[in-house]
Amino acid sequence: MESSDLVYEPVMQYSVCALDRGALAGLHPQKLIVQHEFEISAMDFDYSETNMVFCDAEGLISYVKMREEISEDTLNSDKYGCDIIKFMNDSMHIVHSSSKVDDKIRLMNLDKYCYVRYFQLHQAKVLSISSSPALPHFFSSSSKDRSVVFWDDRDKLPIAALDAGVYPLATLNDEFEVLATCNQAGEVSLFDIRKCYSEGPFSRSVIKKANPNEIWTSIQFSPNKKFLLICTDGSEIRLISTKSGIEGHRNNAKLKLDASYASNSTTVISGSEDGKLYLWDVKVSPDSTNCVQVFPMLCYPGPHDNACSRVLCGKRAFHVVTASKEAYNSVFFSIIKFAMESSDLVHEPVLQYSVCGLERGALAGLHPQKLLVQHDFEISSMDFDYSEANMVFCDAEGLISYVNMREKIKVDPMNCQKYGCGILKFLDDSVHIVHSSSKVDDKIRLMNLDKYCYVRYFHLHQAKVLSISSSPVLRHFFTSSSKDRSVVFWDDRDNLPIAALEAGVHPLATLNDEFEVLATCNQAGEVSLFDIRKCYSEGPFSRSVIKKANPNEIWTSIQFSPNKKFLLICTDGSEIRLISTKSGIEVAKLIGYRNNAKLKLDASYASNSTIVISGSQDGKLYLWDVKVSPDSTNCVQVLPMLSYPGPDGSVCSRVLCGKKAFHVITASKEAWFWGIS
């Protein structure tokens, strides 16, 4: 198992938490990064803090790679100008507002130096743009037209909009949990991002302005999320507690310019009209009920002839960048050489194969290679974590086996006999699972595998839970469906549901890994696709009805193919169905395996999105090579390419393939890892 590519941090990095006043006094401009002819209006780090962008109102955009040797690419958007600029969740795409022709926001590909699309809804100047590393493609913007708008960069139409008052500003926290807004009336509001479309803020406060004409110019969360930093065009920089909504401090240094939090959440750095840089050490409690004035701890002569109008600090390490017409990186005079260390290696399970490179002859060598776990009762469910280095198995009697699939397989058994276990699912880490009950009730329970304890339960369903799904993109979020006809959205930090949909008789539901689409199906043959951003308030963007030859056929599971082009629907009959996500049409039926006993048999897509593997009543494992187009309008029947004898002659009722590599796991009472000889 190889580590991922190393990420080189910009220039130098320091942990400010370990620096005292003497060390901080050594902060100085070290390197000129970029120089513009006109005042730099905005700048931003990407989320790795290895790249930056700068822009000015005339439209010059500088893309800077801040590795060992600073490399600069200049791009020009003279036609539109550039006022606010923001990286999306990669280092290749930015969005920016216009300073010249209109109020559109434009998405630019920095690699190809081209515009991808524009976003038009605002009717006045854009005041802020914010994005989150937790959710790809999503960003918000605010405008003088009083609106805060939510966007997806793959679609020029907005997701939703809020009225946020006069001259609103908006920012998202990095975890994509909270949207904070403020306006010129002094109102500061916090919204649960999951419910802000349909509900009001969970916190709202009004901050009194000594000068009613003071304009608030920017808003940002502190890295620890306990405070909001609001910059003004006056003599105060304001800190607001996100817990109480109370103003925590004001500075009295007569500043009118940008300020930014350093990575330790106590140090605030701001530019000044006199060209100096000011540093405050702000140690106040979010529970404080008093507003204190804080004076700078240190100030530094700036490199610029005029004001340090733009200041930006890194969130990962102590990076300080200032800009007027030039941009400088400021670091400490005591230069410390650092080596960027790779993150801890994640060992892949046992063996891994790229199925794309395997032909029929190699696939014919698939065989049960290693016994992973053994239960006294039939294993009812199993799941990989998202690294595919760990697995969990459960049976209806409540035995849960946690398997560490590194160099030497380690099994930790846990027993929840009181509740039993029907379906289980890893959340976004390797420590927490959610599972349904097979015995006492219809609650879903969150378990910490490390501490072997329940954290909370989720209660809304009034009948048996039929499916649970989560996404690696959005932490804490999962969905469930039940015989009570509902699909419910949950956050694992709260036992109350976020929202629920009516989805028909015996519904099943699954999320794609990118957290873009929710797919549901029900026993009436209805297959629906929902835009996950709008499914609370709008219906599906695609709905089709699949005709069943046998109306009594029960659909038992649903999953996306790894390439998201198909839905795989398992049944209690002798057919496995493939539905095109593009057209909603059934494009293939996989046949040739046995299931006369109406067993609940799993099928699973391998990582290349063409191989499908399923168990069978006769104890064999069947493999199909399904090469159909999502644009097809015909339904073809596909026979197995290969079949394999099972490990113990019993029915391979559970089958699960990895998405990252060619891992095949089967289970009845025993769970086996299959390898290729």
Short descriptors:
677 residues; mainly beta; Methylamine Dehydrogenase, Chain H; Thrombin, subunit H; 5-stranded mixed β-sheet; disordered N terminus
What does this structure look like?
The protein is mostly beta strands. Among the domains are: 9-37 and 207-338, Methylamine Dehydrogenase, Chain H, CATH 2.130.10.10; 366-378 and 462-676, 7 Propeller (Methylamine Dehydrogenase, Chain H); 379-459, Thrombin, subunit H (Beta Barrel), CATH 2.40.10.480. Helices cover 1% and strands 45% of the residues. The protein contains two helices and 58 strands. A five-stranded mixed beta sheet has the order 18-19-20-21-25, with no helix packed on it. The chain has a five-stranded mixed beta sheet with strand order 47-48-49-50-54, with no helix packed on it.
In brief:
This protein is mostly beta strands and 677 residues long. Helices cover 1% and strands 45% of the residues.
Helicity range: under 10%
CATH superfamily of the domain at 366-378 and 462-676, by name, is: YVTN repeat-like/Quinoprotein amine dehydrogenase
Report the total helices.
2
The CATH architecture of the domain at 366-378 and 462-676 would be 7 Propeller
